[in-house]
């Protein structure tokens, strides 16, 4: 494949998916990792894409395609760690907390080994594994149908189980967010779980990096009225943050 043709295919895939891993790009280009890395360097210098650790990110795509879990993990990873470090400050000993499925909530789960008396409820198998391996907190794993590629449960059985659980706080993830439409999602699989969890928790915290405020996703699910506090990074545009302050939402930037 000619260099120009190969780079065109890479740009198209990156713009389509928003965030793409090196492995996905190598498969698309049918080339070596070294070749793809050189292509990404060239494209980044021309400001056609942005390089991120382990992959690449679109500079202007708003297409509602869901990135893979690996791609989500690579995106804004330092910011997600800061958000998790702030979120843990709102957890008190002895509380019952719900952790929604997501990469930022997974970072929060990694910080909970300093507690020993929490009850942690989650529908995310990766979070459950982290809690089970690295803490002495009580763990409740929500069952149901497992979403392939994302290791989270959803559906009738998951919803029925969560309806019977109350909590002090829920920590939520989101695919996209704005002040007008509220929470947006690439899939409807887990929106009922988010709604049930917020209804059964006394306080609801939304953890989302700054990119979620300018992203788009296929389904608008609202729910912003149920959010107690939004925690994001200082990378968030000041005007976007003000839009949420104007509708009386507490937003914390770290």
List the helices and strands and how they pair.
Elements: H1 3-17, E1 19-21, H2 22-29, H3 33-45, E2 50-52, E3 55-57, H4 69-74, H5 77-87, E4 96-99, H6 103-109, E5 119-122, H7 125-134, E6 138-141, E7 145-147, E8 152-154, H8 156-163, E9 167-172, E10 176-178, E11 182-185, H9 191-200, E12 201-207, E13 219-222, E14 229-232, H10 238-246, E15 250-253
Parallel strand pairs: 4-5, 4-9, 5-6, 9-12, 12-14, 14-15
Antiparallel strand pairs: 1-3, 2-3, 7-8, 10-11, 11-13
Task: Report a brief summary of the structure.
By secondary structure, this protein is an alpha/beta fold. The protein has helices spanning 3-17, 22-29, 33-45, 69-74, 77-87, 103-109, 125-134, 156-163, 191-200, 238-246, and strands spanning 19-21, 50-52, 55-57, 96-99, 119-122, 138-141, 145-147, 152-154, 167-172, 176-178, 182-185, 201-207, 219-222, 229-232, 250-253.
Describe this structure in words.
The chain has a 7-stranded parallel beta sheet with strand order 6-5-4-9-12-14-15, sandwiched between helices. A 3-stranded antiparallel beta sheet has the order 1-3-2. Strands 10-11-13 form a 3-stranded antiparallel beta sheet, with no helix packed on it. It has 10 helices and 15 strands. Strand 14, helix 10 and strand 15 form a beta-alpha-beta unit. The protein folds into 2 domains: 71 residues, Winged helix-like DNA-binding domain superfamily/Winged helix DNA-binding domain (Arc Repressor Mutant, subunit A); 178 residues, Rossmann fold. 38% of the residues lie in helices and 23% in strands. The chain is α/β, with parallel strands linked by helices and 254 residues long. The chain is globular and about 60 Å long.
């Amino acid at each position: 494949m000619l260099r120009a043709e190969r780079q065109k295919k890479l740009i198209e895939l990156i713009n389509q998916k928003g965030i793409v891993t090196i492995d996905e790009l190598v498969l698309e280009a049918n080339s070596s990792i070294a070749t793809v890395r050189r292509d990404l360097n060239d494209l980044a210098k021309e400001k056609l894409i942005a390089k991120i650790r382990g992959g690449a990110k679109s500079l202007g795509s708003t297409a509602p395609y869901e990135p893979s879990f690996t791609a989500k993990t690579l995106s804004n990873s330092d910011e997600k760690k800061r958000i998790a470090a702030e979120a843990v400050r709102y957890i008190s000993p002895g509380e019952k907390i719900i952790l929604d499925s997501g990469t930022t909530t997974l970072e929060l789960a990694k910080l909970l080994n300093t507690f020993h008396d929490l009850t942690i409820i989650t529908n995310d198998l990766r979070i459950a594994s982290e809690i089970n391996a690295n803490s002495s907190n009580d763990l409740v794993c929500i069952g149901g149908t497992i979403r392939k590629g994302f290791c989270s449960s959803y559906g009738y059985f998951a919803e029925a189980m969560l309806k019977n659980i109350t909590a002090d706080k829920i920590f939520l993830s989101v695919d996209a967010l704005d002040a007008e439409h509220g929470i947006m999602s690439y899939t409807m699989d887990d929106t009922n779980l988010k709604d049930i969890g917020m209804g059964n928790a006394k306080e609801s915290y939304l953890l989302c990096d700054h990119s979620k405020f300018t992203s788009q996703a296929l389904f608008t699910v609202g729910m912003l009225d149920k959010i107690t506090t939004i925690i994001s990074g200082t990378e968030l545009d000041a005007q976007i943050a003000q839009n949420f302050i104007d509708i009386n939402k507490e937003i914390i930037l770290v």
